[in-house]
Amino acid sequence: MGLPVLLLGWMLLAGVASAEPLRVTAVLDGDTLELEDGRRVRLAGIEAAKPPRSAAPADGRVWPLAEAATRALSDLALGRRVVVHGPAPVDRHGRLLAHLVREDGLWLQSAMLVRGLARVHTRPDARAYAAELLAGEDAARNAGRGMWRSRVYAVRDAGDPEELARDRDGFQLAEGVVLAVSKTGGEAWLDFGADWRSDLTVHIGRAAMREVSRAGIDPLSFEGRRVRVRGWITLRNGPMIEITHPEQIETLEREAVRNAAVAPTPEGEEDWEEDEEE
Fold it and tell me: Region entry Disordered: which residue ranges (predicted)?
């Protein structure tokens, strides 16, 4: 875990030595690009800094981190040959969800994460290398790089339901101590406050519970522990995050060990400081 992005990229590349490298002909934003065969690829497992969904497409507002993410991916990938690694499902927009490794072994996902221009956003069908991706995110966040200097992307306090309610319909990270866990009917609820009717609740439904169990995790083990959870905020008796796969929840006790092994930002890379608008 926490291998430098180039070394891990070579390891991924070694597993697909027969795949044909393809040139990147366009970069659309910080996590989407186009290959010479016409396919569009959404970088699996991450989400780059972007304008919020509520932003008007032509309102004239500037989103410095979104622009920085697009420039960074262009610098890393445009005109370069890459290999599509591992399974590459097609999303609802017709794009491949894939990990991309440059011919020289650089892993694009991890390169964006360690620069602080993307955060980990796994999906049930795009969960590969989550631990390594999280290590890159941790390195950038602990160093205060890029988006981790912005209040827009700051990790939310799981014990502050009013703040979380303001993030309704947004993808967020929240940290806090799980005060209580209940399991019934093949589901589980993690409560971060004394009143489940108003405080943050993390819900693990039946399908997700099967995945959590396969990962060897008992939700009851989260009680009394500090965790970080990521997902979309909805309102249902207070703010709620729905868990669809186990990689959405991290216990933080091992964080120091993971961070110690992560490579620093590559020499010469810019450290983006701009703060996004609300």
Answer: 259-278
Token pair recorded at residue 22? 């393809």
Identify the domain containing residue 12 by its residue range.
5-150
pLDDT at residue 16 above 70?
no
What mean pLDDT do residues 36-55 have?
A: 87
CATH number at residue 217: 2.40.50.140
DSSP per residue over 245-270, as a string? Answer: SGGGEEESTTHHHHHHTSPPPPTT--
Average pLDDT for 81-98: 87
Confidence of residue 254 (pLDDT cuts 50, 70, 90): low
Single-letter amino acid code for the residue at 117: L
Q: Is residue 190 a contact partner of residue 178, using CB atoms and an 8 Å limit?
A: yes
Q: Residue 146's domain is classified under what CATH number?
A: 2.40.50.90
- Residue 157 CA to residue 161 CA, distance in Å, equals 8
